[in-house]
Amino acid sequence: xxxxxxRTWMRAVSEISRAVNVAxxxxxxxxRVADLACELIGFDFCAVMLADGTSERLGIVGWSGLxxxxxxxxxxxxxxxxxxxxxxxxxxxxxxYRNSVTIAVADVRGDTESYGRLSLSPxxxxxxxVASPLNGSxxxxxxxxxxxxxxxxxxxxxxxxxxxxxxxxxxxxxxxxFRAGREWAEQQHRRLMQLVLDEAGLGGLVxxxxxxxxxxVAVIDTEGRVLAAAGADDGEVPWGELTGVDPEREPGHSxxxxxxxxxxxxxxxxxxxxxxxxxxxxxxxxxxxxSARRQLVEQFALxxxxxxxxxxxxxxxxxxxxxxxxxxxxxxxxxxxxxxxxDRAGALGFDLSAARHLVLVSADGIAEHLPxxxxxxxxxxxxxxxxxxxxxxxVVMLLAAPDVLSGLNRxxxxxxxxxxxxxTIVISPPIHELSDVGSAYxxxxxxxxxxxxxxxxxxxxxxxxxxxxxxxMADSPAVFLERLAEQLIRPIAxxxxxRDTQLxxxxxxxxxxxxxAGRAATALTVHVNTVGQRLVRLEKLVxxxxxxxxxxxxxxxxxxxxxxMHIDLPV
Length: 571
What we know:
The chain has 19 helices and 16 strands. It is an alpha+beta fold.
């Protein structure tokens, strides 16, 4: 008798495997398992129950012989609670799942008080049952329950056969889920790749992944900037608060608290050329809860890397064309045919006719940091820009930006951090037409040379025209301007430093007040005689007659040069 029984069991196992291999729906496979359980073990009825995604309830997925009334009543209240609040809501199936052991009930009339759900047995007409957990690699995935119409004491052989079929069923479920997960991941990957081919952009890709995982998704670069995000309303998720990977959890898993309502997250690096350039974040513990979803996340990170590499390449091409154009403008090339320059700029999305300022960034080795410096200046001024390395400096051309000074002040420290040597930033005089660009550049470059000669750094603003700016535009040798400031202003500054005489402040105020001692005294809140005495001392220090127009002009120019060389704008 052993051989026929083995043959029957082998045919049953083969039938289950074939159903899984041909990708039959899981409910069809489990319904066939229930039929085979009745045939092989002698049950009158059978049910295969699976736990939901939160492992809180068991739901009947496949069955044999159960009536619709019984199924409807069993499902009442969301099916069987795995961890019920009271014994009246407990069941042998839930206990078998919780404890991962087989539970046999010889006569339900004697166990109705222990398992309140057995009170439904008259609806189906069974008096005994056996529930065996569908044990997987970790916790059970569900329960196989066999029912007998008559009271039945299940022997060891009955229990063993039920557990054997439960093991085969668990294997079939895992195989079916793995197959379905793999097909789902492949389908999603093909969809993502099609989006790349359709040039959906990073935002479209992130939106597709968020939809596939039903979770908020974001790509955040190494500087903390959100490159793209989807699946959450604006401001709902403070992406900047995300932390790193939890070393005590699985690779890629991060534990909270991260954000409100999402204490778990998955993250994976976006690597380009062996360097991590960004991280992909998916919020919610269930977002990457199985291998198929994690595989999709890893594949998506690769797709994001490709997209970012493509964008980087496009940006490099744009920056090269931008640099070539600005270099031609600075050299004066094409000014005889300005429309050619305007068309080239228009192709780059830059209105050359609306250019209003140059920003010159000077430091030792600054040319190597063109992309970083350009990004910081664009971010600070929030306006389109052309940028190039001209001479040994970086020159950035901007559209009208009224907040350019405060913007550059905001990112000044970040630009300083780019290079080991001190950085000078010069804002050129205003540009009104293309022919002004050369003069504006010469003024900015001259100011940078003056600043370097004084071994000082910081921001110099030349947007307000003065005699000094005109001289810088005319390519006056910086050494002569420096010498003028040293001869006329340094003695005054040194006297102030030694004795705190405020002579330099008095000179500046007197010049600003139109050479009026009375108005200067009012501005300085001192007596007019005090101003007069200070002016006498100034005459002695510079050995010049303050009453002469030439002396006053020289002092004004020398003071402007001194400010360029020594006065730093506040951050």
